[in-house]
Amino acid sequence: MSMTGLTTSRTSYDGGTSVLKWPVEGVMPSMRARLSFRETVDASIQVTATPWYSQDSRMRDFDYLDESEWNRQAHEGVDIYSETETEAKTVELSTHLRFLPVCTGFMRAGLTAGYSRREHDFRGFDTIQTGHGPWVDQARTLKGPSTLYSVKYEIYSAGVAVEWTCFESLAVALEWASLPVVHATDEDDHLRRNRAGRSSTRGSGYRTSVYALAPVGRRLAVTMSCTHERFDTDGRQTQYWYGDDPATPGFNDTGYGLGGIRTDLDSRCTTLSIGSRVAF
Q1: Do strands 195-215 and 170-190 pair parallel, antiparallel, or not at all (unpaired)?
Q2: What is the DSSP letter of 254?
Q3: In whole angstroms, what is the distance from residue 11 CA to residue 19 CA?
Q4: How far is the C-alpha of 187 from the C-alpha of 196, rounded, in Å?
Q5: Domain definitions of the chain by residue range
Q6: Nearest Cα residue to 129 out of 143, 140, 120
Q7: How far apart are CA 149 and CA 186, in angstroms?
Q8: Tens of pLDDT along 176-233?
Q9: All residues at 6 or more sequence positions from 69 whose CB lies less than 8 Å from its CB, including other chains
Q10: Which of 60, 65, 137, 176 could form a disulfide bond with 79, CB atoms 3.0-4.6 angstroms apart?
Q11: Which of 269, 256, 273 is nearest to 212 (CA)?
């Protein structure tokens, strides 16, 4: 399975807004088991997992700061921008149920429901930072570990599906699903500042998918699918300093914390898979 997308963390506080865009990309092994009953009901469970791997794309960090908090001249647009090399891993467990009571000689249609639990973990290192306007003095290149980031999603879905049989054997299915409940949590550890943040958010979204199955024998078939998923969540974040922050000389931040920070956790993801199916 090939996955491409972004998971975005946006935090807003009195001094400005920070937007982190983490790339989600790579080829991931996946396995699915499915049970069917009289061509009307089928249930499946799928597991996707990867070890740590290097990503081609970098994490991008956009800071929009309130210059009045820092006694600097006002500036429109991005104030500080940085890119960070990343390594990532993904684990996902999902279940899916289809009830297709409307049946004809070549078509089935009905309802779907599902649940998935997904986790993306990232390790960031080697950061290149640039400053704009009154923040040009913040340009720097930082070698070594920069950040650890983990985000977890619990996603509930409900939708409709239509499946056609073409040329007596080729099956093509379309599905649209609402994601009425999405619960997200994350943990962001800024290693260079000895600061960690934890968020909890809720929201909703949608998912669309197309699936095709072509038999190549009595029990064996080739499968292809493409899914696009999008959801937005919002909630609050708590930050705390487990050590002294080098960005605030003259003040020991150890043990200091902030709560109630406005946070959005959003995801945009497209997956493409080609595989095989064995029927028993």
Answers
A1: antiparallel
A2: T
A3: 7
A4: 7
A5: 2-278
A6: 140
A7: 7
A8: 999 999 999 999 999 999 999 999 999 999 999 999 988 887 788 899 999 999 999 9
A9: 14, 15, 16
A10: 65
A11: 273
Q: Half-sphere exposure of residue 9, counting CA atoms within 13 Å on the CB side?
A: 24
- Residue 59's contacts (CB-CB under 8 Å, 6 or more residues apart) are 20, 21, 22, 23, 83, 84, 86, 122, 124, 147, 149
Say how far apart CA 58 and CA 21 lie, in whole Å.
9
How many C-beta neighbours within 10 Å does residue 42 have?
A: 16
pTM for the model stands at: 0.91
- CA 142/CA 146 separation, integer angstroms: 8
> Helix, strand, coil: what percent of the chain each, to 5?
5, 75, 20
Is the CB of residue 100 less than 8 Å from the CB of residue 107? Answer: no
CATH 2.40.128.90 is the classification of domain 2-278:
yes
Q: Buried b / exposed e across 119-157, counting CB within 10 Å, b at 16+?
A: ebbbbbeebebebbbbbeebeeeeeeebbebbbbbebbb
The single-letter DSSP state of residue 194 is: T
Q: Using the structure block, give the residue that is written with the tokens 């009901």.
A: 41
Residue carrying the six token digits 């705390």: 240
Please write the tens of the pLDDT for every residue from 89-103.
999 999 999 999 998
Q: How far apart are CA 154 and CA 186, in angstroms?
A: 12
